[in-house]
# Entry
Amino acid sequence: MLQVNTARERRAQHNLSVALANCESEILAAQKLRWRVFVEELGARLDAPTHGVDSDRFDPHCDHLIVRDDDNGRIVGCYRILAPDAARRTGGYYSETEFDLGRLDHLRSQIVEIGRSCIDPDYRNNAAVIALLWSGLARYLLDGGYQYLIGCASISMADGGHNAAAIFNSLSERMSPPEYRVFPKVRLPLERLTPHPACVVPPLVKGYLRAGADVCGEPAWDPDFNTADLPLLLTLSRLDARYARHFVQRAA
# Structure
């Protein structure tokens, strides 16, 4: 397992650190945070083995990046990371439950998948949490020599998908080259939706786009989370210069 050097930051009265979970209790705490955010807060319907714990068949094969408030021991942010070797062992990436990734087959040895990103509601106004998560991801990529980061950025379907359609329509200039396109298995019916004149872009989507990620195809509908999932691919060599200075150099 790769190790992420612990990084620390004090901001907004919190002493925060980021590292890979190194024991079952830390992984469990992250899974409980995911349950609180995705199920209790956002209303996802998850078929998890244990009530109150968000876990699936991918979790045992993943590394779990966590941000901890060292003043109280509380885990306040997390990302789930699936490396190429682990993806082969478990039969593919989580993204492949939603998308046909066939055109990315030649990149698989260099693709790290991230997902299940969440932050404790009490810490969402603290920019240090997401900054530490991103620096931890950068360290992970650098340590493993990986070149690509793939993930699904979720957009709420609470309005029936109209905002998701508006967001996708606004991203025509951010589409990947055709050879990197992926295809949703349950496609969001964009032609039946009325895009909002002014779309509301979730912070996670903004973060990916600002970092320089490409949109790899149309969004898929995830009925369990009731979200439109936008497939995004970030190439480390094309990382936005500001992000490279702030996260990659900071992680090096």
Observations:
- The chain has one domain: 7-251.
- The first strand starts at residue 7 and ends at 11.
- DSSP finds six helices and eleven strands in the chain.
- Residues 5 and 195 are 43 Å apart (CA to CA).
